[in-house]
Design brief:
Layout: H1 2-16, H2 19-43, E1 49-56, H3 61-71, E2 75-81, H4 86-95, E3 101-106, H5 108-111, E4 116-119, H6 125-146, H7 151-157, E5 168-169, E6 172-173, H8 178-212, H9 215-219, H10 225-261, H11 264-270, H12 281-308, H13 312-318, H14 320-331, H15 333-338, H16 343-350, H17 355-365, H18 370-398, H19 408-417
Parallel strand pairs: 1-2, 1-3
Antiparallel strand pairs: 3-4, 5-6
Helix pairs in contact: 1-10, 2-10, 3-6, 8-10, 8-12, 8-14, 8-17, 10-12, 12-17, 12-18, 16-17, 18-19
Length: 418
């Protein structure tokens, strides 16, 4: 066992001493914060839009729309009368960057709710949403006026309903709302996916480096191949746990300072979906258990990929089937968030290659029976032993083999004869 410990210590110390490790410690929480907050902040920008309102309405409807658009301070509106060549001239103005776009309105906006917006950029959801909201409000008011109903009275009677959500866990109502539940599940899914993938590839790269530099021939003279593979997996796993601890400390600091760095409006928009969740001891334990399970399962497969490959290019090609197994569970994350108890979510949480992401996401998004968690962990543990046994036999033969990458029948022969 002391030989395995020597490999673990070497892998741990070698990685912790590198600059990239400390760079990731600092940049990791900043990256996750940027992924979740930066898109919201960028979506609120865009500057003032210069648009023309092509007015084909009657009864002063176009003037009301132009006035309402100007009051938002997001648009500089020029109202022009409709004509046979107006659209062509405005299109040329947009092409020459003198306008950002133009809005074509007629009485159809009230009768059938149809209008048209032409612009050089029609992918800004904030701009399109603002235009739609104003057109919807004015057309509704006109319809009410035609029906003899005062729009002011209707506006006063329309009260926005705020739905307060509370999660029930273990037969008790908790203080966790929908935004916190979503944030926790979303964060856990992304962190698990990236961490398992990154550290699994690190194991593969370490194996491939020692194989291509012939260092492994010296190492296997003093310890068994399985001991070498186990030491690498445990060493990289220890590095990942240490990095998680540092991320947690730095992340808590960034969260405490986040409210001071964002303005009230920006914080409110970002907080509509993402809120800082409360992580219970059970959730933290489940996260660690499934991370370690997923890490050991995928690291064994990545180690086998590194052992059977002779070059970096071969390794990148051979790792794709392994990565697809992990990507599949990540792609299905939103389906599991929508229905944690659905057939797809339950199935993915029982398959060992997808359960390291599927089960923690379901755990955070809903309430799971203890029996399901126990069965999932049991299947995952059994799969780790089977996959590690197969990977160790491939590793034992592959680390000393060079040349052409083995075929599937050759790998089967390695497993049977190693």
């Amino acid at each position: 066992m002391h030989k395995v410990w020597a490999v673990v210590r070497r892998e741990f110390v070698e990685r912790v001493r590198q600059r990239w490790f400390w760079a990731m410690v600092i940049l990791g929480p900043l990256f996750f914060a940027g992924v979740f907050v930066l898109p919201t902040l960028l979506a609120t920008g865009g500057g003032v839009k210069r648009i023309a309102l092509v007015d084909a309405t009657t009864g002063g409807l176009g003037a009301r729309i132009a006035e309402q658009l100007g009051q938002t301070h997001q648009f500089v509106v020029t109202r022009v009368a409709a004509g046979p060549t107006v659209a062509d001239s405005l299109t040329a103005a947009v092409g020459a960057k003198r306008l950002d776009g133009f809005l074509l309105v007629s009485d159809a906006v009230v009768d059938s709710g149809k209008a048209e917006y032409r612009a050089s950029n029609v992918s800004s959801f904030a701009t399109i949403g603002q235009l739609q909201a104003i057109l919807r409000t004015i057309s509704t008011a006109v319809r009410l006026e035609r029906a003899g109903v005062d729009p002011v009275v209707v506006a006063r009677s329309s009260i926005r309903v705020t739905l307060d959500t509370k999660k029930i866990t273990g037969g008790k109502t908790t203080g966790e709302n929908s935004a916190e539940s979503f944030s926790l599940a979303y964060f856990m899914g992304i962190i698990l996916y990236m961490s398992i993938l990154i550290y699994g590839i690190n194991v593969m790269s370490s194996v491939l480096e020692e194989k291509t530099t012939r260092i492994v021939e010296v190492l296997v003279s003093s310890l068994r191949p399985f001991q070498l593979m186990l030491g690498k997996v445990l060493g990289v796993g220890a590095v990942s746990i240490f990095q998680f601890v540092l991320w947690g400390v730095l992340g808590r600091f960034l969260i405490s300072q986040g409210r001071h760095m964002l303005s009230g409006r920006q914080l409110g928009e970002a907080g509509e979906v993402f809120q800082v969740p409360h992580v219970s001891a059970g959730t933290a334990a489940g996260f660690v258990a499934y991370f370690l399970g997923g890490f050991f399962l995928y690291s064994a497969m990545f180690a086998a990929v590194g052992a059977m490959s002779s070059t970096e290019q071969e390794a990148r090609q051979a790792q794709q089937p392994v990565m697809m197994l992990l990507v599949g569970s990540f792609v299905s994350m939103f389906a599991m968030l929508n229905d944690p108890g659905g057939r797809l979510a339950v199935t993915l949480s029982m398959i060992p290659f997808t359960s390291p992401i599927a089960m923690p996401v379901r755990w955070a998004a809903g309430t799971l029976p203890v029996g399901e968690i126990a069965v999932s962990l049991g299947i995952l543990a059994l799969s780790i032993m089977v996959v590690t046994w197969i990977a160790s036999r491939i590793y034992r033969v592959g680390i000393l083999m060079t040349g052409k990458r083995p075929s599937i029948p050759e790998l089967v022969r390695w497993v049977r004869t190693a």
